[in-house]
Amino acid sequence: MGVLVIIVQTIIFNKLKLLQAQASQQVSDANQQHSGAIEAMQTMVQDLFQAGVAEIKTAQLDCQNKNQQSLKAVNQLITAKIQDAQTENTKMHSQLQTQLQQLQQDVSTQSNEQHKQTRSNIIAAIASTQGLLQASISNTDSQLNTAIQDAQAELEKNANQLMFTHKQQQLSNLETLSGLIQNLRVQNLVELTNELAQHTELKVDTLDFVKHLGECKVVKIEDKHTGQVTQVYYENGIKHSSDTLQGDQLKYQMLYDHEGKLVKGIEYGNDQRVIFEYLYDGAGEISQRLEYGYDANGKQADPIKKVY
Fold first, then answer.
1. What is the pLDDT of residues 271-298, one digit of tens each?
2. Quick one: how far is CA 170 from the chain centroid?
3. How distant, in Å, are the alpha carbons of 79, 83, 94, 140, 158 from that of 90?
4. Whole-prediction pTM value?
């Protein structure tokens, strides 16, 4: 009977050692899987931000090309105006020369009295022609100045609109990143999920931006080049609005609907008054732009609407 007990204890002991070895091997395999998942997540994060930066740089190049095209159009307009003015001046000068020649011919056949009258007529004709030339030059200068001012104003408006588009693209890229991180948290093993849950904040530092994430959502963006800081706000886990500040001044504000889709963008001037509003359609594209102006007393005028 004692021998049987010893045999049973030996079998149980061997079984326990085998189970312990199997458990150790499973723990080792799980740790290797966790390490591979973390490395894959870091690679995906880096690829996503590199792609976002490339898209922003492409948009900036497009903006520069459009500005160059607008400046080229202004230069062509100025050149055309100058050529028209030169042509008009040449015509007037030719007419004056013809009149002078005719008057000289008449003077050679007229008396002294008629000569004095003719000379007076010549002086009057010259004065009249000079007045017309001066008026033509002034009118041309006024048209050129108006064309240049209009072109500059339109360039500034387009630059502001592209800046808004860039901000929207940045937030969209970061939202995609947040979705990837959320999917990884759901799909990873329980141990990896618990480890990520202990770190409620994540900071991603690139050459252009510093992004702060909390609970797998973008909560703040710091622009290294402009010094602007964008704070993103959520309600019930859905993006509600964002504020972009330059120091203590509010520069931009974006508003989202109950599904987290962008519906309105607001741009503020240095005096903290609204200067532009951008309305977005269901596809996230700008559908309208409202431009606000103010009189000397600070009263807001009716907005200027532009529909795209």
1. 999 999 999 998 888 899 999 999 888 8
2. 10
3. 16, 10, 6, 15, 39
4. 0.45
